[in-house]
Amino acid sequence: MMNSKICEMLDIEFPLVAFTHCRDVVVAVSKAGGCGVLGAVGMSPEQLEKELKWIDEHIDGKPYGVDVLIPNKMVGKDEKFDADKLAKMIPQEYADFRTDVLENHGIEAPELREIDTGGSGFAQNTQSDGAKALLDVAFKHPIKIIANALGVPPDWMIQMGKDNDCKVAALLGTAEHAINQVKAGVDILVVSGTEAGGHCGSVSTMVLIPEVHQAIQPYGDVPILAAGGIVTGKQMAAAMAMGASGAWCGSVWLTTIESEVEPVIKEKMVAANSSQTVRSRSRTGKHSRQLVTPWTQAWEADSAPEPLPMPLQPMVAEPALQKVNKLAAGGHEGAKDLATYWVGQGVGLMNQSISASDVVQEFKEDFINAFERLNNFVS
């Protein structure tokens, strides 16, 4: 076991935490000495139960965790969930725009001109009741960590962690938010730079890690997992030299053999360079980094409607992108062009598809080499 607070807290050998939507990656990373964390926001409680039961049966008792998403700001946040009411809030021009984008790429999608409750599962799971239902399922399993994105976890979530002897982590992108998280009693800070895939702020990882480490000291030396563009052990070592106790990685698992991502997306990622991602509100209503494709470019055009706030924008984007992905998997050329997925700027270093356990092994070796290289500067 490495001498890191993260290893001690999570009972792991190497302080590498893997955020993934794929149960196979969770198992592979935990068995290789890290800690897999399953992203649950897209799942129903029944589906999550099924996934976690499978993980328990395959992970050999190794530690793992679950990630939810409870935004501090969102349309209808404190109201009873009502998918029909949300659907009525989406103007017709958004349905027409998404349909036009698909039709311009040879995809017939007349049904997308109708606004319905498709894509509203995300909305339900990001409200307190929806997230609580997911966590009620998660805590029936031997999880070691729960993580929350887009704000300070609610008090009840932090209390659930304490009651279940489970560490609570929170994702953040500014020093000010880090201080709020420490004051709230969070156990682990996932400090995510703008290079990250998915939701991210605007400050780079290189600046953010030391800034947060310095800012939180008067309030408590809460361990930091560095995130944002980290896809190699040498980057992990650099982050730990700046104040982190380990790394939280998401993008690097997307091109692994086990990954849930469609082969057409994997191929795009393996071929992509670090400039071929964009931080856009077009998918969730909040800034999230994803592969640049004609879909993302269409939303950046002057003629495009302004993305709606969360959770309305996912109700616009997800039904269209699900159709795109399905057709892309079947070989439709227009759909293959449009297909996109969340990924960070580290995609430029992700140029092969290997197993998740091999990725962990490469991280370890690369970390040791970087550590020795640093030692050589002072010896």
Task: Kindly describe this structure.
The chain is of the alpha/beta class and 379 residues long. It has a single domain (5-77, 127-292, 340-378), classed as TIM Barrel, CATH 3.20.20.70. 44% of the residues lie in helices and 13% in strands. The strands form 2 sheets. It has an 8-stranded parallel barrel, surrounded by 6 helices.
Defining traits:
globular, alpha/beta, 11 strands, three-stranded antiparallel β-sheet, 379 residues, TIM Barrel, eight-stranded parallel β-barrel
The end-to-end span amounts to 25 Å
CATH fold description: TIM Barrel
Give me the strand/helix succession. Answer: HEHEHEHHHHEHEHEEHEHEHEEHHHH
Number of domains: 1
Strand content: 5-15%
Catalogue the unreliable spans. none
Radius of gyration, whole Å: 20 Å
Strand order in the largest sheet: 1-2-3-4-5-6-8-9
> Helix count?
16
Major sheet size, sense and barrel closure: 8 strands, parallel, barrel
